[in-house]
Amino acid sequence: MNQFLKKDVLEGKRLRDLLQLDLSKPDVQCLDQDLEVGESAKKALAKLTVDQRKIPLHGMRSFLQVTTKYLMNKLPLHNVFLRDLNILHPEMQDVESGHHCIRRLAQKLLQIFKPDEIAVLLDEFKVYQQKNIPDGWSHTEKGDTITYHRIHHYWAKVLNMRNQSGDKIFPVLAKLVKATLCLLHGNADVKRSLSVAKKVLVQNGRF
Q1: Which of 74, 133, 204, 206 has CA 20 to 30 A from 55's CA?
Q2: pTM for this model (two decimals)
C-alpha cells in the first residue's frame, strides 16, 4: 500500500480501517513522482519526457492497485492464530500484550502441553521478555547492510539459554516455539505436504 498511497492516509490506521479504504480514489493516492516503482524503473522513466512517462506510470499505478486489492481479498488477514505468531519475531520480544498472544497460541495447541504447563509457559515468556538478547542472534550488520537470520536460528540460541544450575530456562516455551515453527503453510496436496514435512524435520533436526 505504501508504494502508491499517501503516507498520511496509512499512518495510524488499524487493519480494519485499511481494508475499508477505496484504493481507486485519487485523493488517497500519491503523486506520480512519489510512486515507489524501484530504482531501475526510476532510471528508465528519467530518460522519458513528462508526457511519455504518463502511460507507464498509469500502468504501474493500476498494477499496484489491482495487486493490492487481490491480496486484501486473498490473504488470511483476519486469522488470529497467524497474527499471534508474530510474537515470535525477535523485534516483538518486549510487546506489552505478548503474553495474550502466547496464551491464545497455547490454547490452540493444547495437545502438546500438560494441564499445568500453560501457567509455566506464561511465566517463562515473561522471563524471556526481560532477557537482554544479543542483536547478533537475530541479525548482523556490516556498514549500512543488515542481514537477518532465519527465525529458527534465533530461537535455537534463545532456547539453549541456561540458568546458573545449568538447566535450560525455557523448557515449556520451547514446546510452543518448536510446534509453531514446524507448522506447514501452503495449499499442497497431502502427499507433497508429507514430503515438505520430512524436509523440515531433516533440515531443522538440531533445532
Answers
A1: 74
A2: 0.67
